[in-house]
Amino acid sequence: MITSSGGNVSVTGTGGGSGASVGNYGVYVLNDGQILAGGSGAVTVIGQGGTP
Description:
By secondary structure, this protein is mainly beta. The chain has strands at 2-4, 9-14, 35-37, 43-48.
């Protein structure tokens, strides 16, 4: 879980690998994972996956 109590939250990820690589996710929120910003905060998630 990623949280803030009122500020903005920014998550950026870049997947790697190519060809037979597994898990080329830029940002992967697993199962019950959460990204939260409290109050008037904003959540920004930017993920660039790798080559499948």
